[in-house]
Design brief:
alpha+beta, 18% helix, six-stranded antiparallel β-sheet, 4 helices, three-stranded antiparallel β-sheet, single chain, 126 residues, OB fold (Dihydrolipoamide Acetyltransferase, E2P)
Length: 126
């Protein structure tokens, strides 16, 4: 499983990358996309939606299941990955790159410190 060391993780299998400009990029992990199988549809909340940590911000639908997505931190959605509307398989093909889900304006950057490191996340999925 690919677990990039520079990202933070949740126990619900989301990753978050601090963009170091007050925003962060959020997606699902390589482990999550492999467990879900072929993703056929992604539904995300609109931009400007305010989220609290652990709020649902959308769903990913695979051939056999639908999985909710949960915000790793408090903030406001500033951008959604519109490419996923036509190419949801990007989440499978490139979960840490082209398959990102949302960008969020961070309300409290210290929340990032409470998330799992790559090593801690590896223990969760072991």
């Amino acid at each position: 499983m690919n677990v990039p060391g520079e990202l933070k993780y949740t126990r619900e299998h989301e990753w978050i990358k601090d963009n170091e400009d007050g925003t962060a990029t959020v997606g699902i992990t390589d482990f999550a996309q492999s467990e879900l199988g072929d993703i056929v549809f992604v539904e995300l909340e609109e931009t400007e939606t305010e989220l609290s940590q652990e709020d649902s911000f959308g769903t990913v639908e695979a051939v056999k299941t639908v999985s909710e997505l949960f915000a790793p931190v408090d903030g406001e959605i500033t951008e959604i990955n519109e490419e996923l509307e036509d190419e949801p398989e990007l989440v499978n093909d490139d979960p840490y790159g082209g398959g990102w889900l949302i960008k969020i304006k961070l309300n409290d950057t210290s929340q990032l410190d409470d998330l799992l490191s790559a090593e801690e996340y590896k223990e969760v999925i072991a």
